[in-house]
Amino acid sequence: MPRPSEPPKNIWFRRRVSLTRSLVELWAFRELTATLAERDLRVRYKQAALGVAWAVITPVIMMLAFSLIVNKITHTNTGLHHPPYPLWSYMGLLPWTFFSSTVGGGGMSLVSNNTLLNKLYCPREVFPIAGMIDATFDALIAALVLAIMFPALGFAPASTSIYVPLLLIVLVMFTMGVTLAVSVIVVYMRDLRLAIPMVLQFGLFVTPVIYPPTKLSHHPAFLIAYSVINPLVPVIDGMRRCVLSGQPPNWTWLLAGGVSSLVFLVGGFWLFKRLETGIADVA
């Protein structure tokens, strides 16, 4: 039996993504984004006896575990001015916890909101962005611990902390790009949702959270390449340099990580918008 011929190419549907139009539409739904983030926070903490204290408990327990076990084994050199290891490790845990919470929560946001997806019109990226807002709230609460740790350990933030906003820009771009890509891929590949916790657990150990980047290699070319692959490397190292050691970030690493983060953001957004039209049907 002869196969039916394809429709003429001039009537094929072509999905065109306009960055300006997408951003304008996203801004128009900013109240919905805030509402979704608030709803998720209320659901998460309303029935919890300790409430928002859970945002602090997880990184603090990990910091104590690293300080009591890992540092005893590895004897990590914390660098210039030798800040206490608990403070040094906690400074690395803050950006990592923000990244892992955003990817873990925002990555599942489309699947967990499939009922809304079929009843409400909105740019679908509001769901992973709401997940990032939730992770930002938790990170801000966890950062308050530093106000206790600094005086308790007899240490003070350096004046070079003014560079921290640059590091946060790189962190947010990379995190958002990965989250957008993961959230839309999970809709079409459900097995990925089971792999996300495992990948994040693996990522904790291949990212210099509990050790300095030089533990991976002393070769400059390798560290630059690794900053491209994993922009969290220059972010975490820069946090420690700026806040604890009184040094500016490694500009070469930060430039490599910044360019890579922008590529991750643009690529993740492009992939999300290309696959957006089938989300409601598949989710």
Our count of domains comes out at 1
Number of strands: 0
What gyration radius follows from the Cα positions, in whole Å? Answer: 21 Å
User: In DSSP terms, counting alpha (H) and pi (I) runs of 4 or more, how many helices?
Assistant: 14
Which ranges are low-confidence, i.e. pLDDT below 50, for 5 or more consecutive residues?
none
**Which structural class do you get from the secondary structure elements?**
mainly alpha
Shape: globular
Order of helices and strands: HHHHHHHHHHHHHH
Q: What value does the average pLDDT take?
A: 86
The helical percent reads 55-70%
Please give the alpha-carbon distance between the first and last residues.
Answer: 35 Å
Estimate the strand proportion: under 5%
Main sheet characteristics: none
Walk me through this protein's architecture.
The protein is mainly α. The protein has one domain (49-282). The protein contains 14 helices and no strands. It has helices at 19-28, 30-45, 54-74, 85-106, 109-112, 114-117, 126-143, 146-152, 164-188, 191-206, 220-229, 232-245, 251-275, 279-282. α4 runs antiparallel to α12 (232-245), α9 runs parallel beside α13 (251-275) and α11 runs parallel beside α13. The radius of gyration is 21 Å and the shape is globular. The mean pLDDT is 86.
Short précis:
With 283 residues, this protein is an all-alpha fold. The protein has helices at 19-28, 30-45, 54-74, 85-106, 109-112, 114-117, 126-143, 146-152, 164-188, 191-206, 220-229, 232-245, 251-275, 279-282. Helix 3 (54-74) crosses helix 4.
